[in-house]
Design goal:
Number of helices: 2
Helix content: under 10%
Strand content: 25-35%
Radius of gyration: 24 Å
Shape: globular
Largest sheet: 4 strands, antiparallel
Strand order of the largest sheet: 3-2-1-24
Structural class: mainly beta
Number of strands: 24
Length: 382
């Protein structure tokens, strides 16, 4: 019995490392020599000089924060809170609370008050000695009609479940209903960590990150699309691009993501989206370790997390729209008619206007001495 218990503990630790931390690599890319990040609400981090429209919700050290009008407000205690997402109407939040051996999805007000529990992933009392009987929920998102809760989920578990191949699959559960009323939308690849970070689409279906192994044995991510539960779906990006963390633009016509191309980097990448297929991938930022891109609700740019320097903690950054969507060229001037009518000499062709060199638009570092959770998506209320 003792040997089985120790084996269960060891395998549970492996489960947490391999099955529930698909993006933990990002959050560990910082030097121990770097000063510890400050809390966003500490006196030293004064109101940020650069402000963003609306309110952004993000996570640091197990607490949720809001950022608006240049100031941060702590919404929850440092108790394992992460991965906030807004209701489609912006009225409330759903978020994950992590415990040592399980995690659950909660409903919170926009000011951090817990108003509901949507999952119950802790094992029954008779099985709690076996950590493998617990379950994990991550990356909750509500469908546009608020009727379905999508999340990455590794259950359901049963008492004595000895399957320690933890594979997260995307589940859809009627909002407010127990997990037994839901069903898996995806079929994950074994020993990869599974299917992560679903994004519900206005027309139905989801885009998510599917992990697999390429021909060289490297674990890679792909954006994947499926329009109904149980469908095989289809890949939107290649294994060679190794993309993850999809984010849908407010108008539904573009997807932002990160892509690594097999390197120890993560490029900010965007592509057009027509409801079933992605356009060509466009690398927007290639000199930062980008994480969790999100579009401004008014379409004015993209916010994301990236280190503030070499091996430094992740800060909040802002990329104006002019960086990835330059303005259309000015039309040629309309010729002025010659007095006397068309029988006179033809007008000379107008001289082409000089094409100005567009200024280089650089990302703006919004915070400087903080450190945000790069595994946690941002939420943005307009």
């Amino acid at each position: 019995m003792i040997a089985r218990f120790l084996l269960a503990i060891g395998l549970a630790i492996l489960m947490v490392v391999s099955g529930t931390t698909s993006y933990i690599y990002l959050s560990t890319r910082q030097s121990k020599a770097v000063a510890a990040p400050q809390k966003p609400t500490d006196p030293t981090p004064r109101a940020q000089q650069f402000t963003l429209p609306g309110t952004i919700y993000l996570a640091q050290s197990g607490a949720l924060y809001s950022f608006s009008a240049g100031r941060f407000h702590q919404l929850t205690p440092e108790a394992g809170w992460t991965m906030p997402a807004l209701y489609p109407d912006g009225s409330q939040l759903v978020a994950v609370k992590r415990s040592p051996f399980f995690s659950d999805v909660y409903v919170l007000t926009r000011f951090g008050k817990v108003t509901g529990l949507l999952t119950d992933n802790q094992a029954a009392p008779r099985s709690r000695w076996d950590p493998g009987a617990n379950a994990w929920s991550f990356y909750p998102r509500l469908s546009p009609d608020s009727h379905t809760l999508f999340m990455s989920y590794d259950g359901p578990k049963t008492a004595g479940d000895a399957n320690f191949n933890v594979v997260m699959q995307v589940w859809g559960v009627p909002f407010g209903a127990p997990i037994r009323n839901g069903r898996s939308w995806t079929t994950a690849n074994n020993y990869t960590g599974g299917d992560m970070q679903p994004v519900p689409l206005p027309a139905g279906g989801i885009i998510y990150t599917k992990y697999s192994y390429d021909s060289n044995g490297n674990r890679v991510g792909q954006l994947w699309f499926t329009n109904r539960a149980g469908s095989a779906g289809k890949a939107l990006t290649s294994q060679a691009a190794s993309c993850a963390q999809p984010s849908l633009s407010p108008d539904g016509r573009n997807i932002a993501m990160i892509c690594t191309y097999g390197k120890q980097v993560s490029y900010l990448t965007i592509a057009s989206w027509n409801g079933s297929t992605l356009g060509a991938l466009q690398t927007v930022i290639s000199d930062q370790l980008v994480a969790q891109p999100i579009w401004a609700p008014d379409g004015s740019g993209i916010a994301y997390l990236a280190p503030g320097g070499p091996a430094a903690p992740f800060q909040l950054w802002w990329l104006p729209r002019a960086r990835y969507a330059p303005p259309a060229p000015s039309p040629l001037p309309t010729p002025t008619p010659t007095p006397g009518g068309p029988h006179n000499a033809p007008l000379p062709a107008p001289s082409p206007l000089p094409v100005p060199t567009p200024p280089v638009v650089k990302p703006v570092q919004v915070t400087t001495n903080l450190g945000f959770d790069a595994t946690s998506p941002l939420a943005w209320l307009g």
